[in-house]
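This is your field. Please look over both lines of this record.
***
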Amino acid sequence: MCPSKTTRENTRGGQGYDAGPYLPRSGGLDAHRRAAARCQGCPLYEDATRTVFGKGPESARIVLVGEQPGDQEDRRGEPFVGPAGRLLGKALEEAGIDRDEAYVTNAVKHFKFTVAPGGKRRIHKAPDLREISACRPWLLAELHLTRPDVVVALGATAGKALMGSSFRVTKDRGALLRMPGEEEGAYVVATLHPSAILRASDKDREAAYAGLVSDLGVAAKALAEHEPTA
């Protein structure tokens, strides 16, 4: 059931945005994906082509969380299908993680962008804390439904969505962490977003990519050490 006009107006009021009223009361990932397609919990839906929900098996032991959909993801309706996604796939393979067995998603489900002056090219714009907070109910629902052993935060936005607004990827990247207030459950490993590596200068890109593979290796090791017993 879609929220009423009054609920939408209150959701987008001065106290901040909230996708919570749009979440279904029951159902798995497919039910949440269908509900997310109608989400108007923050103004980003107005300019985006569509909601880009997560993709992967509900039984995934590892969840990869990025920032938000890019231009290609917004057009195709799937996460990590652009250049950053291809780089991520390569790094996962080198780290020994099967991408087909991973669940990939973003902290924010709509593409935020500006249009280049005098043209039609859409330029990525980082989501702000209100937008990250508004979309967090979707992310938490995905984590609740998949119940992974490891969550990888790809970049600052994902790190803040999972660990709080004061979290800094550069300080704690590559370490096995727990989400605040949780002594059990999934480990969190933070690392760079693949798009940051693509933006790096030629002399820095190789080292940045090696760091991504190394951090993903920490996640792969944690998966191996917590392999379910038959």
